[in-house]
């Protein structure tokens, strides 16, 4: 077994609550996290933005915290931990999902970093622009530095997160204080109220943005000294920061009318704070994501070194920095998360908690001919259950894609009451539980005869 993917015995783990807390807090300290609140602020007003940001994020991150328990208990990387559910080969689909979504996120974060750094360095620090400055900032801060940190020694990440996370949170609290104290009149004058449809869209966005963390939890939670510390660190680190950033982004957008965090931070005189978040947040978040994706690649291939896997993630991510619009890429990732990520990991969580009752065979996770081989390495029931959830998501949320062939009037109407991602996950989990129960009944009956 490759060392990067071998199970980590509990006696060899050294990440207790605080290092894990700063790790997940750092992961959510992003300009993209501001965008979540900005997207629904106009529809909800001040009170609605604050209320939905708190409640929707809290609920969504509870699910994320539960998902990390398997790796925290058994010390398994995320892809390896998926093998009992999807099969030795079927778990590779999870690894591919992690790789694809990581390329998208790194592309988004690097792109935002390039644009923000160029604007803020010029407007606030007086640094003259130069030819190719966007690309230099985007690639250097968004890809090169994080890649070097992770490739040299992944454990450096914990030390880095423990230093940068408190600093970035303080900057964000300062931004919130400035917004509330210097723009009180503007906030009081904003009309309150929200439509049911607008609230549902806000909940869906918060939920999808939160569960996008599901693929990354295992790679880092396997270093946890206990399941308890892994749970509360992931929940508090992600939820508190995610909520804070959504509220700050939403209120700033209501005051300025701008969605872009760089633009509204400049208008509100918060450019320096924004620049610090851009630099530190991008480095730490990309390092976290690249490590998880690289571990997934090693799990799938088993003959590629960890550092080579880092390069495999970095190359397509670099291309995305220059080849697509930030808005389109962000929207696509949110749709991808609801349709694919949510349903895939819902099946895995159901299998672990409700079917296996948190017991898996660690040795079998590495045995090609063991009990997790199923049918030639694939577990059909798991993918059938996932497909059932995908159908539900397409019916309820397909209209968000803009494609007429998956846009249903009744589905859009029901979306106002149900949203899309959570029902799809529940259907996938429920379908898998029913299929597992049916299979268990058949096995029991066969054993009696």
Would you list the SSEs in sequence order as H and E? Answer: HHHHHHHHHHHHHHHHHHH
In DSSP terms (H or I, runs of 4 or more residues), the helix count works out at 19
Q: How many strands appear in the DSSP assignment?
A: 0
Portion of residues in helices?
over 70%
> Overall 3D geometry?
globular
Main location: membrane
Membrane topology: Multi-pass membrane protein
Pfam families: Transp_cyt_pur
InterPro entries: CodB, Pur-cyt_permease
Can you describe this structure?
- There is one protein chain.
- The protein is built from 19 helices and no strands.
- It has 449 residues and is an all-alpha fold.
- It has a domain at 16-326: Hydantoin permease (Orthogonal Bundle).
- The model has no long low-confidence stretch (mean pLDDT 90).
Question: Layout of SSEs?
Answer:
Layout: H1 17-28, H2 31-67, H3 69-74, H4 78-81, H5 83-86, H6 91-123, H7 133-152, H8 156-182, H9 184-188, H10 196-211, H11 217-221, H12 227-256, H13 261-267, H14 271-301, H15 306-323, H16 326-355, H17 380-397, H18 409-418, H19 421-448
Helix pairs in contact: 1-8, 1-12, 1-14, 2-10, 2-12, 6-7, 6-14, 6-15, 6-16, 7-14, 7-15, 8-12, 8-14, 10-16, 10-18, 12-13, 14-15, 16-17, 16-19, 17-18, 17-19
Provide a short characterization of the protein structure.
This protein has 449 residues and is mostly helical. It has 19 helices and no strands.
Task: List the defining traits of the structure above.
Hydantoin permease; 76% helix; 449 residues; globular; single chain; mainly alpha; 19 helices
